[in-house]
Amino acid sequence: MILTAKANAKINLSLDITGALPDGYHALTTVMQSVSLHDTVTVEERKTTGIILHCDQPGVPADERNTAFRAAALYYAAVAETPHVEIHIEKRIPSEAGLGGGSADAAAVLKALNSLHGDRLSDSRMADVALQIGADVPFCLTGGTALCKNKGEQMSVLPPFNSHVVLLKPASGVSTAQAYRAFDTATALTHPDNDRLLRCFAAGEYKTGLQYAGNLFEQLVSLPEGEQIKRAFYTGGAYYAAMSGSGAAFFGLFTSAGAAQNAARALQGTLPFVCVCETADRGVEFAQ
User: Fold this and answer.
1) Other CB atoms within 10 A of residue 277 CB
2) Residue where a domain terminates, one of 137, 159, 181
3) Can you point out the beta strands (E) in 70-163?
4) Both ends of the chain: CA-CA distance in Å?
5) What distances in angstroms separate CA 133 from CA 128, 139, 176, 208, one per listed residue?
6) Residue 215 resides in a domain
7) Burial of 122 (0-12, 13-18, 19+ CB in 10 A)
8) Where does a domain end: 159, 177, 195?
9) pLDDT band for position 256 (50/70/90)?
10) Residue 202 domain flag
11) What angle do CA 171, 174, 180 make, to 5 degrees?
């Protein structure tokens, strides 16, 4: 059997680092949102054993270094079966962007395999497996709009958020590890006002809540284009703009498709990646 899924990217509407955990990881409080930019992931069960992975983007690893490969291996281990699957990934989500491309692919593989195997793993067990792959994978399994805390495993669904979105990625990249190390030595950081933000979000008042939002990583990473990109978004009519994750992608939120398209056209040619999309209510969508 074969299943094909859209593995939707994510953005962080707000992101705060709240401290260090005993295991050395950092505790986060973030509001995550799925968007319609997606990779296409096809999962096919095979009669012969093993995990075979293909990707249309050169240089993407096809072994255990790939999150989708690890997702397949962990799924089969969880159901106590020998792997027998072939995975094809059409990449559209840029890498090293803070848009969760690898996490989305892993979530799509987990959901597809579970469907092909008669939903043998419960939602909570799937979330446990997802967390072994990466902090964003549990969210990508569910998608939509959610508050995620700690490593991302503490997730609370929020009312749906609808907006037109422009995504941009500058040429420069970001090391997530270096960004976290910068937090460990930083002083005088300005944190988002999460309490006020979440009160507004819980009531569905997103535009009001976004006044209190922010991404702490913007103070920890050095992206010379960052402020210029955000100014361009606001000049183009965005009602909110921020970096996603630890970067390097930025997003702008717009009230209409026309405003988003106009802003994107004004920026095309100046940056290597510009995309117009919308918010999405799911992390993984199976093809009809």
Assistant:
1) 20
2) 159
3) 84-90, 145-150, 154-157
4) 15
5) 9, 12, 16, 34
6) yes
7) exposed
8) 159
9) very high
10) yes
11) 165
The reply to whether 136 and 187 lie within a common domain is no
CATH number, domain with residue 75: 3.30.230.10
288: confidence class by pLDDT, cuts 50, 70, 90? low
Matching residue, tokens 């991302």: 152
Which percentage of the chain shows pLDDT scores above 90?
A: 75
The encoded tokens of residue 137 equal: 């994978």
**What does the angle CA 26 – CA 27 – CA 33 come to, to the nearest 5 degrees?**
115
Annotated catalytic residues are 10, 136
Average pLDDT over residues 258-280: 93
Question: Angle at the Cα of 273 (from 271 to 279), degrees rounded to 5?
Answer: 125
Is pLDDT above 90 for 109? yes
- Does residue 169 share a domain with residue 144? no
Q: How many domains does the chain have?
A: 2
DSSP notation for 172-188: ----HHHHHHHHHH--S
Q: What percent of the chain has pLDDT over 70?
A: 100
- Indicate whether 136 and 179 sit together in one domain: no
Say if residue 153 is in the same domain as residue 192.
no
Structure tokens at 223: 């992206």
Q: Please say if the pLDDT value at position 224 is more than 80.
A: no
Q: What is the per-residue pLDDT across 122-139, written as a single tens digit (0 to 9) for each?
A: 999 999 999 999 999 999
Whether residues 179 and 247 fall in one domain: yes
- The model's pLDDT over 59-79, given as tens digits with 9 standing for 90+, comes to 899 999 999 999 999 999 999
Residue 190 resides in a domain: yes
Residues 202-217 pLDDT 10s:
888 999 999 999 999 9
- Which residues span the domain enclosing 273? 164-278
